[in-house]
Amino acid sequence: MIESQNAEFQFSSYKINRFSFVDIENPDSVIKIELNPFGIYKENEGEFILELFFIAKEDNENGTIIMTVDSKAIFTFPNKCEFDKIPDYFYKNSIAIFFPYLRAFISTLTLQSNTPILILGLLNLSNLESVYRHQTKCIKD
Q1: First-last CA distance in the chain
Q2: What residue segments make up the domains of the chain, in order of their start?
Q3: In which element (H, E) is residue 89 found?
Q4: What is the pTM of this model?
Q5: Per-residue pLDDT for 140 more than 80?
Q6: Fewer CB atoms < 10 Å away: N or C end of the chain?
Q7: Could you tell me what percent of the chain has a pLDDT over 90?
């Protein structure tokens, strides 16, 4: 049997900074989802901020944007590791940990606006890892 190990980081909090929503004119429209992650690691504080931008648009020639969400998740490294010592699994797992909160916000927003509910299914987010790493900066203050 393999013994589990605790992660070197913790999920602290999240916030929805901004969002916009426009009702879909055609409820049968196919929706295209885009996610853009980037991070800021405050090395002296051991705090990692994941900013995740979500865009949903109609998959047609106009590509009408129906929803945008600018969200933020805060993770802490209690042992304040150096930027280059952040575990490889952090980048993939931090998005996966935060995504259900974003998905719940989107579903609730569309439910409360009395429009067709936008329910995001399970998504394979592993392809975001390389973009996320590339768009992460370290602050040493």
Answers
A1: 43
A2: 10-139
A3: helix 88-112
A4: 0.88
A5: yes
A6: N
A7: 58
Contacts with 4 (C-beta within 8 Å, 6 or more apart), sequence order: none
Measure Cα distances from 72 to 17, 79, 114 in Å: 7, 22, 26
Q: What is the DSSP letter of 134?
A: H
How far is 94 from 64, CA to CA, in rounded Å? 29
H-helix or E-strand spanning residue 68: strand 65-76
Instruction: Work out whether the CA dihedral 126, 21, 116, 104 comes out positive or negative.
Output: positive
User: Could you give the CA distance from residue 68 to residue 23 in angstroms, rounded to a whole number?
Assistant: 12
Amino acid 37 reads P
Please state which CATH number belongs to domain 10-139. 3.10.420.10
Look-up of token digits 């994941």: 50
